[in-house]
From TrEMBL, chain A:
InterPro entries: SQR/QFR_C/D (IPR034804), SuccDH_FuR_B_TM-su (IPR000701). It comes from Streptomyces hydrogenans. It comes from the Bacteria. The lineage of its organism: Bacteria, Bacillati, Actinomycetota, Actinomycetes, Kitasatosporales. The chain crosses the membrane at residues 50-73, 93-113, 133-152. It holds the Pfam family Sdh_cyt. It is found in: Membrane. The keyword Iron applies. This is Succinate dehydrogenase. The keyword Repressor does not apply. Keywords: Heme, Iron, Membrane, Metal-binding, Transmembrane, Transmembrane helix.
TrEMBL record, chain B:
This is Succinate dehydrogenase cytochrome b-556 subunit. The chain crosses the membrane at residues 21-42, 54-75, 96-116. GO terms for biological process: tricarboxylic acid cycle. One of its GO terms (molecular function) is metal ion binding. Keywords: Heme, Iron, Membrane, Metal-binding, Transmembrane, Transmembrane helix. GO terms for cellular component: membrane. Coiled coil: none annotated. It comes from Streptomyces venezuelae (strain ATCC 10712 / CBS 650.69 / DSM 40230 / JCM 4526 / NBRC 13096 / PD 04745). Belongs to the cytochrome b560 family. It comes from the Bacteria.
Amino acid sequence: MSADTTSAIGPVEGTAYDVDNPAPYIEAPRKRTGRTPRATRGNFEMAAWLFMRLSGVVLVVLVLGHLLIQLFLDGGVSKIGFAFVAGRWASPFWQVWDLLMLWLAMLHGANGLRTVINDYAERPNTRLWLKGLLYTATVFTILLGTLVIFTFDPNIR
Amino acid sequence: MPAGTLYRGREGMWSWVAHRVTGVLIFFFLFVHVLDTALVRVSPEAYDEVVATYKTPIVALLEYGLVAAILFHALNGLRVIAVDFWSKGPRYQKQMLWTVVGIWVVLMAGSLYPVLGHAARELFGS
Ligand code: HEM
Ligand code: HEM
């Protein structure tokens, strides 16, 4: 039953013809075998793809709700001022809302911009610098926004 | 344009372009927006002074543009998600795009007065 060495059927395919196996059995392409490394590539891009969709669904509620409150209800922009913000951040609910919105929108937008840079910046050096700038600005903005929510002081003056 | 192209130059491509442009614009706005909100940690006066510019007629127009960008990006984003996860999504992508555009037009018309009303009153009196 052993396949001879000139046969096109390699060791991966296993034993060839047989009474129970009348036709040659061919492995599915890229089938994992004992010799395949456990992870042949990372799943980062897939996670990023999924994150864009999951965060997108949540952002619809957070951002459209935010816009409704800031621009549409109670006189629109006219009412905004320090006192208005103090009133809103007195409530943990809106603090958590803004915090979640800050993190999700910044990460969603930064990942989107990463895609855009990958698409248009072709020279390795340009890509490196643009992404460095993007990541620096993103980390800075997220940290600053978080700090502002947590350290807000209505009696600053 | 090469023959037999199903995608290039058609609705799918232009909605993708618009999704990309609006996404980048919103990101840049958000960066500036977190900086201006951070002024609440400086002083109430500094914050109120900057927010006052948000209430001028020209910036009101920009706010209307921001609403336009976000509404399109949000609605079309939901369409992209439906194309990816709903088994019939790809087949109805075109109908869904026109649904998105239709809802967007209605919401933009409804936003005219709430977002621009105060600017109109300032410009034309009353
Ligand atoms: C022109 C339209 C907008 C106005 C007038 C506005 C107004 C405000 C105000 C007054 C605050 C202070 C806190 C509060 O009241 O909740 C705030 C915070 C915030 N807004 Fe907006 N907003 C606008 C659009 C947006 C958009 C489109 C986004 C998201 C993409 C956004 C994201 C945020 C975030 C993340 C915070 C928290 C900032 C921080 O952590 O320091 N805003 N906004
Ligand atoms: C309001 C709810 C939102 C939804 C439903 C949404 C949905 C999406 C989806 C599904 C994608 C992936 C598109 C693709 O892979 O082809 C995407 C891309 C993107 N989003 Fe959003 N998004 C939202 C809000 C935001 C916000 C607030 C920002 C900015 C801070 C933003 C910036 C971007 C950018 C820059 C891209 C990349 C565009 C590209 O690669 O062409 N999005 N969005």
